[in-house]
Design a protein that fits this description.
Layout lengths: L1 H28 L5 H9 L2 H27 L8 H14 L35 H9 L6 H11 L7 E9 L4 H14 L7 E7 L4 H10 L3 E4 L17 H9 L3 E7 L3 E2 L7 H11 L1 E4 L12 H6 L14 E8 L2 H16 L1 H4 L23 H13 L14 E2 L11
Parallel strand pairs: 1-2, 1-4, 2-3
Antiparallel strand pairs: 4-7, 5-8, 6-7
Bound molecules: 2-acetamido-2-deoxy-beta-D-glucopyranose (5 copies).
Length: about 425
């Protein structure tokens, strides 16, 4: 009898320890989750999870039908919160094993520089509800966006909307030789592998001769950027407000938009193009996360307050590289990702603050947030981290392109 009682007590102790360990692990492992979500995850049996997925996919079927008919008339009304939330939930539940995101390493104010780390005393947390996070992002959309979109529609009106892929870049006079090297790389690695595409380069201030030689050699269409129709600060090129403007406008013309800065090289990515586009279609977009710098360190505080967040929430997340990315033309990407991104571009204190410092160099001891700013890149990072609930692996490319700043060429012929 006492033997039995002993075993019973040992079993109880083991069970209690396991439960405690599991909830500790869940809340520790994903700092974005409050305890509330950790409990939620625990309380989900397999049956319940399956049922949720069934409901989600039924809704998606219904919305797909709606989307099909809406597409036919081109004007859509699928930017409702309800519709976008269904799509977001589906994207999150379709790849349950791809959870990877923020680091688990704890911050040490005395030691660390700009690397991502978990700030255990951060008073703010992300909501565990995708709908709530989606609503927060959508609430930053600027209504005056519509009046400016027409400027870009005018610029891109002659771009045919019949291509599956749009490859797009932009260059100013001081990036002319870098851009030539990029064009050469695109001709070598993308042109032979893609069909049904068009290549566009925006002129952000090339000299007349540079423009002439680009048009002659690039195998692309060179378009003007409508600076005169946009707020004056769009001319401050280092704020990169032009990038969300170009991407948001051009995505209407294609199925996949491939953005590349003039420093981007494809020579080790071109092999896996099919899987890159397949992933993009399923997940909405493909970016590259995994920079050595934390979003919290490399983003000005004003931008976090624009999003209603505190910098320390973003401590564990590495920046994304906005130098390249593949965007799928679908309502979720247009309305929940690109419109909010462009809205930030239109709000000076969000993307283009007067005193924003690009350089993060120098000793960062003690560790602090808001040291420098990454403009377009900071903003897109915040939007995606929030929407995808920190599961950056979901939208991370399975391959990395090369960014070779100052890799130049004299490739265009006179
Ligand atoms: C964590 O965030 C809080 C609030 O912003 C800040 O006061 C504290 O210094 C941060 N801790 C570390 C280790 O960075
Ligand atoms: C090119 O792609 C578009 C959009 O995906 C498609 O509608 C069109 O039929 C394709 N054209 C050719 C020639 O394959
Ligand atoms: C470039 O300039 C040359 C000489 O002025 C001219 O003949 C040619 O048509 C121009 N090419 C383009 C694409 O504008
Ligand atoms: C890609 O091209 C650059 C030159 O533009 C070269 O230095 C680099 O080694 C190449 N990378 C690979 C993986 O081939
Ligand atoms: C919306 O964009 C306009 C144009 O740039 C800007 O003046 C305005 O402040 C923005 N509104 C908000 C709420 O950010």
């Amino acid at each position: 009898m006492s033997y039995c009682k002993g075993t019973f007590i040992v079993l109880i102790v083991i069970t209690v320890s396991l439960i405690t360990l599991q909830s500790w692990y869940l809340s520790r492992w994903w700092p974005i989750l409050g305890n509330e979500q950790a409990q939620l995850v625990q309380s989900w049996g397999k049956g319940e999870a399956k049922e949720r997925n069934d409901i989600t996919s039924k809704k998606v079927e219904k919305n797909k039908a709606k989307e099909g008919s809406a597409r036919a008339v081109l004007q859509t009304d699928d930017d409702t919160i309800e519709n976008l939330a269904v799509i977001l939930n589906k994207k999150l539940s379709d790849f349950p094993s791809e959870k990877g995101g923020p680091t688990k390493k704890l911050c040490d104010r005395a030691k660390s520089g700009s690397a991502p780390c978990v700030n255990t005393t951060c008073p703010a947390r992300f909501s565990s509800s995708p709908e709530t996070r989606l609503k927060q992002i959508l609430s930053t959309r600027n209504e005056s966006l519509h009046s400016f979109k027409s400027a870009m529609a005018e610029v891109t009106r002659d771009v045919s909307a019949s291509n599956k892929y749009v490859l797009v870049s932009a260059a100013s006079a001081n990036h002319y030789h870098e851009m030539q090297a990029m064009v050469k790389d695109v001709h070598t690695h993308l042109f032979p592998r893609l069909t049904n595409f068009t290549f566009i380069i925006f002129d952000l201030g090339l000299s007349p001769l540079q423009r002439n030689l680009t048009e002659k050699n690039c195998g692309c269409t060179v378009l003007d950027f409508p600076f005169d129709k946009l707020p004056a600060f769009f001319s401050i090129l280092r704020c990169y407000t032009w990038k969300p403007m170009i991407i948001r406008s051009l995505i209407e013309k294609t199925e996949f938009l491939v953005w590349m800065d003039s420093s981007v090289r494809w020579n080790r990515t071109a092999k896996s193009l099919d899987s890159l586009f397949q992933r993009c279609k399923e997940r909405g977009l493909q970016m590259w996360f995994g920079s050595v710098g934390s979003v919290a360190v490399r983003t000005q505080h004003d931008m976090f307050s624009f999003y209603g967040d505190q910098p320390c929430q973003y401590d564990p997340f590495g920046e994304l590289h906005a130098s390249y990315g593949v965007y799928h033309n679908e309502p979720f990407v247009r309305y929940a990702v690109l419109d909010p991104w462009l809205s930030c571009a239109f709000t000076r204190r969000c993307m283009c603050q007067q005193n924003a410092k690009r350089s993060c160099s120098g000793k960062l001891v003690p560790r602090r947030t808001g040291v420098c700013h990454r403009f377009d890149q900071s903003s897109l990072g915040i939007i995606l981290i929030k929407l995808y609930g920190g599961r950056m692996k979901l939208i991370n490319m399975n391959t990395q392109m090369e960014v070779r700043r100052r890799d130049k060429a004299e490739w265009f012929t006179k």
